[in-house]
Specification:
mainly beta, Thrombin, subunit H, Methylamine Dehydrogenase, Chain H, 5-stranded mixed β-sheet, 4-stranded antiparallel β-sheet, 86 strands, 1% helix, 57% strand, flat, KLLA0E18899p, repeat
Amino acid sequence: MLQKLNHVGPSLAVKFYEKWCLCSQGPFIEVFDYSNGSSINRCHIFHRNKVHGISIDKTSGNVLVYGSRSFSIVNINDLFSKSEVLDQEKMTGEWIMSGEFSFNKEEIYLLTSYNRVLIIDPDNFTVKSTHFVEGERSILYSGSIKVLRHKVLVNAGTIMNGIIVWELDSKKKIHTLRGHEGSIFYVTTSNNGKLLASCSDDRSIIIWDMVSGKLLSRAWGHTARIWNLKFFNDDTQLISVSEDCTCRVWNYKNDELTIKDIFESHLTKNVWGVDVEETNLIAISGGNDGRLKVTELVPHNRSCNIELSLESISEQCDGFIHKANEIVKGFHWFDFGLVLITSEGNILEYLQNIEEWKFLDYDDRFFSFSITQGNENTIFFMNNKCLLTSFKFDKFGSVLQKVDYELELLTKTVNCLSVRHTAHFYLIIESPNPRDPLLMLKFNHGSCAPTERYTFSKPENMISSCAEVHNNRLLVGARFSLAFIFDLASETKPPIVVKTQAADAITSINYLETTENDALFSMTNRDGTYFFVAVDFRSSVYKTIHANKISRGFLEGSFYDSNDDFFVYGFKSNLFHIYNESQQYEVFSQPCGGAHRQWKLFGSQEQQQVLCFVKNSTLNITKIPKGKYPGALKNGTHGREIRDISFRKRSNYCKENLLFITGSEDTTVKLSSINSETGAIQNFWTLKSHVSGLQRCKFICDNFFITCSAREELFLWELNDQFSHPYVNLKQKLIPSMNNPDLRIMDFDVLFLNGDTCDFIMATVYSDSSVKVWHYFNEQNSFTLIIDGRYETCCIWNVAFIPLQNCLKLLIAPTDGHLITWDITNSVPFEIRNNELFDRGLKLETKQLQNWSEKILVHTAGIKSLDVKLDKSSDSFKVYSGGDDNAVAITKFTNNDNYTMKAEILDHDSYAASSTVTSVNLLDNDTKLLATSVDQVIRIRDITNDKLKITESKYTTVADTGSSDIVTLPNVQKTLILIGGLGLSCWRDE
């Protein structure tokens, strides 16, 4: 029996209520405590229709929910406690655009797409009356109802006729507002009823005077269509959400609408709903990606409270006289404040508790050139003449000690890097002289003088950029994407050279964790790439186990937070930003100067992070806010349709969680895990190597999966799960057939060699009817083409290898409705014995695909999906197929003695669905067949007697249903099912 566990899909309506947030996803409303992000309950509201709108009567605690032609009045307590309230669903004859309670709460108003308002008795749900404007025939794209004390205003956003404002009781038209081009996508009234805001296909927002009907202000800013608007903050501000995935805040003052803030809130396409909690000034938005994003409109603890030039500092700081052209050369932030050095050698201190500047010292040895590093309450200044000066402070910022240290082993100094650890602090000092060693000084915390010194022979052309120390090893990141690992126990030992696949300097190295053999490090590169590298120090071997690239900008560092989300930070043009890479949203941004900027990020995410930078010769100090609220109540999935899903079948990431991948129209592949008990989904990585929408993604074994798409893109990925997080690395790409490929790889299948989990043959089929077979040799990490050919001229949707007793068959399913097989036994340089593939050691060469062997018409249109059951005892196989003709069929192929095959259709259901059957999966030891279709119905059929007998059907709330996969849960007689489309639905068959 199918049991629904979870649904993640587009969220069309969101609403705050006291300390909770009500969010729609499909026909459900999920209630969250927005203060901590916990889910209180999920309640099934409608049988099939999606929830489009929510209105709350705070006096009675009743909630009006509407969507499509359905509406329901539910008590708020039922939303908190019940799993479903389907018996309260009522239907109208017209599409509902908006709904509200009357002022006295004795009626409800439903605005329909025909610009009519149904007045409903909430006790018996009867239509008391229908109000409309006589002679008005407009069809609505949007609309809203504004209930005031003495009147009710109806704002009708039409498809072609602007905005019609009319009064409900008198049924009189008040205004016809024309100023937009195209359909009106949303229209809303201010809280006091004096203003009206609208948006349309022209991407503009207009503010109207509700008394005169005059256009007061028009503003542009969104780069795509705007879907929702809301006034807040005493009608002085407006929030808008858009197809461009941003949430924008506007100020309205003196009849002028101006942009205030832009928040990148969602993925790929479309933000549908928004609401604002005005007490704490936080917004909740719901998008196509299923994410429920919390945005703090006034971030807590954010204070760019210092923005001073040296000239203005000199006016506050006794003893410091600013000279012409004097600039800030370096700085470090401590708990007590900031210490900086200027190009003239002036050393200044800012005490944040008393907000005062102090002059500490003047040292002309640091004229023009200096490098600044710090640790706890000690700061270090280094010039280019091998002088290192340190100041030690107490917790109030008073100087306790000053020490000069001559770097006599070096002839000149050009760079100084720092590494902080629990027990020690390190400075790594580099000379431009290639004959000078690389010097490392070790300090105890709070000490001004080094306790140990290490020297290493500097590799040729090494220009250092970052460093890390772990397990008696020094790791130095450098330009040209190189990292060097030095052994502190053997200073003469040559370093391990780590080469990463990037184009610029490595900007950060961080130690993460250690398994039995390997230590794991994260690295970022200035070109926007980040890596995870596992190093076995005993054998001096390293391996890149994860590589990915951000969408745009440069990377300067990364970290994991306490929730195990991975963050990266860097620059997009002149904007510094911190980005949650695991969940794919920005958490902080700050304009920060151009390419030659001076900046440093201090502190940790768990405590207080402080960004210091110099912009236009002005020192800026920004304390990065720690969010008071969770960044998202629900993280969602892709922003576009999910084209394919694949479970990792055998090994689990952890006890209850199963790993799976999804490939989407948005060109990304996500690696996630799902809890088999609750259906809760956790996203780990969003892989961005593809440049076109995904077609297929499939785990081919525990460690490998393959993805394919248009432009002949096919990527082999390697999964590593030996650490506390799973990691994925792009292992190899299939070489396209031309320089500018335009073909789509529609499907692939693999067959591993006997006893091998790495070497395999792979069949690929293409949109131009091409068929190719490849050999993958893991040791050389290479694909070799061994069979090349073509079927006819139609697109091929599916392919499968069929290893029989002594022969190998290739099966395809094209758009002409046939199932076609080839005998490729003599075309591959391998031997087939007992249904398995054996290497004969023959030379690999490309052969042409021979004529097909068997061909049978099964469907009257294209075969969209298939699954195969191999019967070794009878040397036969059965194909379970679903097609574009809405049919499901069982076809049997039996091997004859003369190496031909007999093909017969065992059963065929021409009316298996009311629309295209998009995926089929065998389950329950091949005794049942799961089929999904575009009509959003999941059907399970009994196939034990080679007959298609429906045993169960369920409606799924995932639109554009297109993919599915199953996995048998270990130790229990249950199957976990994932259904993908415009969203993701999780079911369990028990």
